[in-house]
């Protein structure tokens, strides 16, 4: 069973590097979580290295701009690696004519790359960062479009593997939901973000650049998504801390309290075994 902890400093002696998720752990897309920010600041003051590892489809500069907007203290991290950062390599390897599926705010993903953004009928591959309007649409709204693209054998590059994310007090769909549908329709996807290896390799490389060394055995990954944050950590040889009050909370909350039996049953059903769990990062 996963061990419950209440304070991140309980694990100071067992970890030099913290790979921490962003959405659902540090903020909800609208407001920062002060306890989480302070916990990471305190970890850095104790000598631990904090690399934020997020499935944001934008390069790290876009995440930093969002932090500035909503008020996340920059002292809570040493470096940031995004799914957008590592997806740029997939774009470099893809055909030049891409159909860009996602909101305009994510176009920074292809800045400086030798690509042509074209209409679906002229595309040789698809680059997806999300839904056009995640406030009103769902993945099912894209079934006909994706079916036509998959029937042509177009590769689908997913820049944000998350299926959903918190925005304020709501859950909104992400590009990962479209990638799931594309596979269901018989299409092929390419993904570099969590839970896949490229983003973890890059995060550990960043940690080594800061510390001079980064031992996976003394690295902890922190996140609230079982199939991205926790599955990704375990598949890449890292111990994980599951943050319970994130996107899955409705699976095991009883009123305002986490039912530990239901939580463990949920983790078992998802096939993941994080070493630790916390209500909130604190």
Automatic annotation (TrEMBL):
<dbReference type="GO" id="GO:0016791">
    <property type="term" value="F:phosphatase activity"/>
</dbReference>
<protein>
    <submittedName>
        <fullName>HAD superfamily hydrolase (TIGR01459 family)</fullName>
    </submittedName>
</protein>
<dbReference type="InterPro" id="IPR036412">
    <property type="entry name" value="HAD-like_sf"/>
</dbReference>
<keyword id="KW-0378">Hydrolase</keyword>
<dbReference type="InterPro" id="IPR006357">
    <property type="entry name" value="HAD-SF_hydro_IIA"/>
</dbReference>
<dbReference type="InterPro" id="IPR006356">
    <property type="entry name" value="HAD-SF_hydro_IIA_hyp3"/>
</dbReference>
<dbReference type="InterPro" id="IPR023214">
    <property type="entry name" value="HAD_sf"/>
</dbReference>
<dbReference type="Pfam" id="PF13242">
    <property type="entry name" value="Hydrolase_like"/>
</dbReference>
<dbReference type="Pfam" id="PF13344">
    <property type="entry name" value="Hydrolase_6"/>
</dbReference>
<dbReference type="GO" id="GO:0005737">
    <property type="term" value="C:cytoplasm"/>
</dbReference>
């Amino acid at each position: 069973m996963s061990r419950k902890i209440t304070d991140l400093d309980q694990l100071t002696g067992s970890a030099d590097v913290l790979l921490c998720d962003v959405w659902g752990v540090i903020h909800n897309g609208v407001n920062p979580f002060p306890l989480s920010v302070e916990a990471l600041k305190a970890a850095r003051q104790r000598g631990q290295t904090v690399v934020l590892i997020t499935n944001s489809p934008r390069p790290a500069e876009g995440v930093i701009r969002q932090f500035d907007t909503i008020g996340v203290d920059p002292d809570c991290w040493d470096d940031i690696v995004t799914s957008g950062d590592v997806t740029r390599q997939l774009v470099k390897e893809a055909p030049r004519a891409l159909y860009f599926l996602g909101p305009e705010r994510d176009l920074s993903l292809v800045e400086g790359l030798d690509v042509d953004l074209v209409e679906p009928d002229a595309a040789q591959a698809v680059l997806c960062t999300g839904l056009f309007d995640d406030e009103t649409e769902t993945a099912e709204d894209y079934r006909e479009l994706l079916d036509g693209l998959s029937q042509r054998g177009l590769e689908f590059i997913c820049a944000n593997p998350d299926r959903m994310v918190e925005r304020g007090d709501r859950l909104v769909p992400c590009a990962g939901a479209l990638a799931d549908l594309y596979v269901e329709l018989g299409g092929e996807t390419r993904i570099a973000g969590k839970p896949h290896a490229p983003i973890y390799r890059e995060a550990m490389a960043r940690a080594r650049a800061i510390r001079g060394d980064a031992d996976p055995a003394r690295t902890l990954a922190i996140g609230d998504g079982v199939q991205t944050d926790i599955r990704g950590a375990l598949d890449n040889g890292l111990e994980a801390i599951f943050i319970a009050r994130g996107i899955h909370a409705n699976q095991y909350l009883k009123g305002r309290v986490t039912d530990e039996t239901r939580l463990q049953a949920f983790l078992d059903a998802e096939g993941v075994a994080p070493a630790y769990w916390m209500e909130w990062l604190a």
